[in-house]
Amino acid sequence: MRVGFAGLGRMGAHMVRNLSRAGNDVTLWNRSIGKAQSLAAELDCAVANSPRALSNAAEVIVTMLADDPSSKDVHGGSEGLFAGSAQTYVEMGTMSPDHIAWLAKQAPAGTRVIDAPVSGAIQAAADAQLVIMAGCTPEEAAPLTPIFQAMGKETRCLGQSGSGAVMKLAVNSLIHGINQTLAEAMTLAEAAGISPETAFDVIEASAACAPMLKYRRPLYLNEAEHDVTFTVALARKDMEVTADLARKLGTDMPQGLSTLEILKKAESEGYAARDMASILNYMREHKL
Fold it and tell me: Which CATH class is domain 2-160?
């Protein structure tokens, strides 16, 4: 299949590698052209000079972008993706359902927009073990099965447009809540004289351990020695979008709002570009 891919960040680059290895004819575009050129040389694939050119080169466009504004910029305008001739647009970044509705409204007649965000960290992206949350029916997802199978271990079809975006926000709010609670639990144990390694050993062996704690253990125990996988700024963005959605739907998220406030404070104190695991260090620095 001819696939155009826009957004070659920490996750996107691995997803592209898996699409290429699965035999798809991949064309790349990225705001930082050097990233696209470097990855294209590695995979022996083409680079488009604009989103419109990317769309003209592909049947299906996959975007893995950071937020609503960046997605709007890439899709809209005279040189945007929607100015090209692709027939299907799959947004796999973490977006608001309002933005997905905007994409569906702005898409050219006869084309489809599917929100299909993913759950899984960088290693899951590299290993094609992502869980894909698709805002469509199984029948609508069927033509995209080879693409989804190249990148993920499982695709969950949630029925209607925007439902993938909602489910991703729900999942991420849980993840960021676990991250915050882990930081609090660790600082409590450390304050009583228990070493970080010992405390984490016990948490990891307990009923409270989520999979993300296991694979993120190195970051929690020695953040500075490991590459950033998910920044505090992105976590704050996720929780802001989630809080806005909760307000619109009339649901209460007291723990989510508390997590958001801590993320905002950490970001304002220089943590924005640090991994979200750094919230443990933030909590250590803000004892009563």
Answer: alpha beta
